[in-house]
Every structure is written in structure tokens, then in C-alpha cells.
Amino acid sequence: MRNLAVFVILLLGSGIACAQSNGSSKAAENLKQNFDYINEKVLTMAEDFPESKYDYRMKPEMRSFGEVIVHIASGNVYAAKAGRGEKVKWDELNPKDYKTKAECVALMEKWITEANSSLKANPLGWNGSLDPFLSVLQHSSEHYGLLVAYYRANGLVPPESRPKK
Description:
Helix content: 55-70%
CATH superfamily: dinb family like domain
Radius of gyration: 21 Å
């Protein structure tokens, strides 16, 4: 009887662990989809916005469009490195080092790839925490709204607001 009780406890415990694992796995899948979605939107804007307007600032004290792109890329640097368990500061990238549209776009592409690689290698995050990816997802989403304002302030229609073909 005791062996049966131990077997039932082990069976129930493994079922609970499996259910928790599947729930975490689903959360990681949802995070990956949202992470890809916002990065794709920002990258499309970085590629689409006219190079002649990359230095545009809504106010003198605000970041230029290009500086916002570098700032968002910094978030992906953070996600990539923190997702691998490395020590990282959010603001490792200096916008002054990326002077052209091509440099900003290449930077975004590189760090989106790196962040996705970290997320794939550790789908539940380093040490079981999705936090670096969740933080960057929220951060990028906030700045996506700012990029939309830059478009509108320049009389441009953001890619997501254009008629679909």
C-alpha cells in the first residue's frame, strides 16, 4: 500500500510539473510572438523612414528619430546579453556611433537576431525569468508609439497605418 501511495504522489507531482512546464512554455511562445511583432514593426519603420529626416527631433531636448532607433536597439542588446546571463547595462550603445540610416538599420537587425538567439537558447529566460525579454518588449512598444508620432509630425503615414495591399 505504501508503494502505491508513493507511486500516486510521484505521478501527481510529475503531472503538476508537466502542466507548469507547459504553461511556462506557452508563456515563452507568446512572448516570442510579441517580441517578434514589435521588433518587426520597429525595423520596418527604421527601414522606411526617410534618411533625410533621421536627425529630426520633435523638441530640441528629445532624441532624434535615429537616436530612438539606436535606443530601441540598446534594449535588444540588453535582452540578448541578459538572456544569456551576461552582465549588461541598458545604455551600452552610444547613438553618436551610428550616424547613418544604414548603420541604424544594420544595428537593429544585428541585435534583433542576437536577442532572438538568446530567447531561443533559453526560452524560459536565464534562470527561469522572462523578465529581460518582457522589459524590452514593453520598452520597445512604448518607443514604437513615439516613432509613430515622428512620422505624423513629418506629414508621413506610418507603415502600419497604410492601406494593406
